[in-house]
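Please, structure for the following, as tokens.
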Amino acid sequence: MDGPDGERNGERSDTREERSDGDSFPADSSSNRDSDATDRRPNPGARARADRDETVTIEDDGIVRWLLETDDWTVTVGRDIATCLAIVAVISLLLFGISGVWPAFVAVESGSMEPNIAQGDLVFIADDDRFVGNGAVAGTGIVTFQSGQATDHEKFATSGDVIVFLPNGDPTETPTIHRAHFWVEEGENWIETEADPGFTNGATCNEIVSCPAPHDGFITKGDANPGYDQLPRSGADTTVVSADWVTGKAMTRVPWIGGITLAVGSVRSLTGVGSIAVLAGAGVLALVLFAMAAGERDP
């Protein structure tokens, strides 16, 4: 119907249409809002799955993965110990490959080589046919003090090689680590031909059991000692050191660390058990102390 009422009705109709157009939303807007809200809400199932992923169990993951990933403190400690032992084994094999002797380290028990090698030092040794210097005695790979002076070959701040040997070739004796001073031939009166009078304490060949030399070998001496080892009641108290008695030559030292080895040896001698048993006992004690500390930290 035309007229004023029709116009007002038309205006109101237009207004409603404009409001409807202004407030209109896409047909799927409500579903999108619901979807966004759903995405924002935590999903209990997802949280449960995450918890299951973080908790490793033998039943779900197998014993290998459980041992590698569990947070159980006893397994963690055992895993750390196993890792340390594996690292030690790898390093030991590497050192054996480099040095050619086993063990590749010796602990120094006395101060006979001071100040160049001190008591409690851990010394890395190598087979005498490795890292051979100029002027080595034929067939040995060892440079003596006398030869080292001529060729400028030094070890531990003095001419010549420092060797590890068994006194008198006795395998039950503690090895000695001293410097090789010179080489003698069987039957040689080395007191007169080679020896430095300052290191013989005035002794003559007739007063020394190992002179003339009973066999080919080295005359040795500790850097801190006043006389040769081959003199009576001096140094290692050994006869001429045969090349067959040499177990290695010193290459470098680590200060103080050898004291640990000496401590283990002392416990072994007092208790009568082997080194492995001593180390195992120390490991068990460490685990017990760790468990006690962990228990005190738990609420």
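DSSP finds nine helices and eight strands in the chain. The chain has a mean pLDDT of 77.
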